[in-house]
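Quiz preparation item.
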């Protein structure tokens, strides 16, 4: 499959999930909480409290309608497989950093300070398993860049 077809497929799946969620009461989507860590090349360990977005409904809801995120908090999207991922900021009033991560824990891209309420597509750029959303500008403040690695395995809820 060509990269263009893969991106198109991801966008179509995201659009379907969006319309599906229009029928579900958004406030009924609940998230379990946990913690994850990154290790920098300098050996620093950066921990972040997260909400786990593991189901289609949770991933579709994401951080919509949330006015702001506290420092060292975010949402980790687990797509359950490695694939191209596209996201957007529709109904998300706060700027976010989107950190795209492979199944091996490698950060492949950081989309910094995404535009609030935008329907522009933000692509992972290459196949990934996870995406972490944190407050816009916070990745740089924490020292997260493409040399840092997500510590695996994750302690995901069962």
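Solution:
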């Amino acid at each position: 499959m060509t990269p263009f077809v893969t991106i198109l497929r991801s966008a179509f799946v995201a659009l379907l999930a969006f319309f599906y969620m229009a029928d579900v009461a958004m406030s009924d989507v609940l998230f379990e909480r946990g913690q994850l860590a990154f290790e920098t090349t300098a050996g620093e360990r950066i921990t972040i409290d997260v909400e786990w977005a593991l189901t289609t409904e949770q991933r579709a809801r994401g951080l919509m309608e949330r006015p702001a995120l506290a420092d060292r908090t975010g949402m980790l999207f687990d797509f359950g497989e490695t694939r191209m991922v596209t996201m957007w900021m529709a109904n998300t009033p706060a700027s976010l950093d989107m950190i795209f991560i492979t199944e091996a824990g490698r950060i492949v891209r950081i989309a910094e300070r995404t535009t609030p309420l935008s329907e522009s597509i933000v692509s992972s750029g290459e196949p990934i398993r996870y995406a972490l959303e944190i407050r816009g500008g916070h990745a740089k403040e924490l020292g997260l860049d493409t040399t840092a690695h997500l510590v695996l395995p994750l302690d995901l809820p069962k």
